[in-house]
Write the structure tokens for this entry.
Amino acid sequence: MRRMFVFALLLLAACAPASPAAEPTETPIPSSTPFVPQDTPTPAAAVAVASPTATAEPTPTPLPAPVGPETYPPGVNPLTGLPVDDPSLLERRPVIVKISNMPRNVRPQWGLSRADLVFEYYTEYGSTRFAAIFYGQDAEIAGPIRSGRFVDAHLIRMYQGLFAFGSADYRVRQRLYSAEFADRLLLEWTVGCPGMCRYEPNGANHLVADTRELTRYADANGIPNQRPNLSGMLFSVQTPPGGQPAEEVRVHYSLSIYNRWQYEAADGRYLRWVDTVEARVPDETYALLTDRLTGEVIGAENVLVLLVPYEYYSVTPEIMDIQLVGSGAGYLFRDGQGYAIEWRRPDTHRPLQFFAAESGERIALKPGQTWFELIGIYSRLEEDGGQWQFVFGVP
């Protein structure tokens, strides 16, 4: 039976984002030292695209009993619920890296398979961008790095992280640098190479980061880098009851940016397919997204679609202010099942927490990587026999 949920009475067609245009003016990013990956023979060897494979690198065996939400066994990552190979990594702050998703020739990006959490959100003119959070493991190359947005202040506070970005519009910079975390903002011209370097400086001139080196930079320069309290997320290998079939989850942000998460039972993950051409629903065309660093197909044990208020800070140029505060509705997808949830942010400096919409009880994520899709509260959802389609909308 086909069901449709409409989160506003506004017509989506009237408010759907247009194709990408120029971004708000940002401070130019100066060229820096060409990137030479650490512990690798040559840059080319480090970034060559391997043959795609749906199977990720071997991961630690999940613990049989639930972990979290307030305490975690020693050596268990509170952002994934998994034991880490190197427990010393958990004695630092997470490293948050802003990663580009547009134009399409920046794909495949580097390092997304190594992140514990990835947030995708609408920026402007039909485009989206990622904030990748590295904690339980590092990426020797993460990028291409792009500029910050207002919502990043929420992520920096929630995950108490270092933040690597490529400058920002002057209004965004003003908010970031007036915040209490200003000493944790990492830019190319202050960090330098090998922390933040240029790859192909005579070609694409991508800005990329080595998250290991960013941690070392913080330690060497007196930036507070102690282990933060990241409790709040509950993990369990047991599939929660009350779900509905969810073999496919599509999120359509605009004519230019849309994605599909396809559940693979043998892999236990949702694999990410991305747009290849401008298209309207239902005429999207897709290709699997891989990691340029590892060659792996990008996938996630959990996909969380969160309904969040988007507000216009400016219409011309288009600048969004995403209010990731308080609480709101959302959906969790894991193990081929979909769940209506409530997300909550009861503490400014703690991760988001998740609860079943009907019972109000905490709902467990599957141990592993989580991707967040932040969509507007005026978005539309259609669900039909295991296929879920979200269409982004703003007032």
